Please model this.
Amino acid sequence: MTEQAWTIGRLLSWTADFFAQKNIESPRLAAEVLLSSALHCQRIELYTRFDEVVSEVVRNDFRGLVKRHASGEPVAYLVGQREFYSMSFAVNQHVLIPRPETEHLVSETLDRLPAKSAEPLKVCDVGTGSGAIAVCLAKYLPQAKITAIDISPNALEVARSNAENHRVSERIEFREADLLSQVQGEVFDAIVSNPPYISESEMAAVPDSVKKFEPRQALVGAGADGGQTTRDLIDQALPRLKPGGWFLVETSPMLAPSLKSYLEGQPKWKRCGVVKDSAGHSRVLWAQKQS
Ligand SMILES: C[S@@+](CC[C@H](N)C(=O)[O-])C[C@H]1O[C@@H](n2cnc3c(N)ncnc32)[C@H](O)[C@@H]1O
Model:
């Protein structure tokens, strides 16, 4: 009896079943992304090549990726990229993998800023990581000048290469700094951030694939509730915003009510609010400075 050949279709079914047995999220999608990476092709191409037999060399590479994913390593790090706001971003272990929730922060920012303006808009992205937010804002606000800050020089290297790949590097200035401490004598139309906001105690419940592989500095916020980094940022942002300027941060549903009260307690903010993500969780905290 001849052995059944390892075609693309068969490899995908086998791997999706294997991942499903290991309770891995989106098993079929993970199998497709890893196989297209091993084959150096677009995921969509797999569908027209189902009956193609996969070479021993490619199968070996694929097997390695499958093993690493089965032991928790995120697909995005294995293939070195992740889609965000329909754009592809290079990622490595020095940067947080951009999350779909953060797309709400980008769209809420775009909703508040004019697409065209007489003066170039000035926007600051604090804790830029892979540069996902800064690059999207630069793409969709062609007149904006962006300052992208991170405390991690390794993250800034990734962000710079993403800005170059998306041809917006001439409008983004990258700075290594602790929050807004190095921003002196400059004011912005908007300050946006997805800061670290998980508390030490919440970290215990975070999945191993996040805890073991994503940078701790990108996840854990200061203070017992994880919200001190955001409160520090609120305090530092106020004097660095133009009158009527916008402040937008991603946060957790647990922190959103107390952070909103914190903003409401400061009269220099004209108004503030919280926007829910597509899962119905409070996610984006926004505030506008008095005019
Ligand atoms: C949650 S990640 C966000 C990354 C990216 N903006 C995104 O949304 O995918 C937080 C980022 O803030 C950076 N960070 C942490 N503490 C910081 C600080 N005190 N000052 C500046 N950046 C900081 C981390 O290095 C990390 O890149």
User: Anything to note?
Assistant: Residues 69 and 80 are 13 Å apart (CA to CA).
